[in-house]
Amino acid sequence: MNTRLAVVDDVPLVKKVTDAAYHQYIDRIGVVPPPMKADHAADVAAGRVFVTGEPVQGVIVLVPRGDHLFLESVAVHPDSRGTGLGRTLLGLAESRARELGFTEIRLYTNALMWENQNMYARYGYEVMERRVGAYDCIHYRKPL
Prior knowledge:
Distance between the termini: 23 Å
Structural class: alpha+beta
Shape: globular
Radius of gyration: 14 Å
Number of strands: 7
C-alpha cells in the first residue's frame, strides 16, 4: 500500500477519513472526538500527516515530542476496516520514529474506545497510565 506525506490537496480527504473513522464514537463518549476538531490544514503544512490509499482511506498524524514520537491520531475509513491499513499506518509510525532517532512511540485513547485498546495491545503497545480529566484516557507507549 502506498503511504506518503500528505499535501495541501489532501486536506479535504484527511478531514473526510478522520470524520468517518471517529464519528461512531460521538454518542459513546458524549463529545466530538478531538481528531475531528483538529486543524488538518495546519497539521499537513507542518508535515505531521501521512496518508495511504487511492483515494485516501487511512490517515496518521505523528508529532515529534522531546524524547518520543507522539501518535496523535490514526484513522481508517470504515469502508477499509479489516484490510490491514491500521497495521500499515502503525508500521509507518515505527519507521518514522526510527528515522527521527526516537526509541519510543506514545499515544492515548479514550477509555470508551475499546476497539483502539485491543488494537494497540495487539501491536505491542503497553499501558503507561490512565488519566481522568476532561476525558478518561489510557496512555500507551511502545518501545522500539
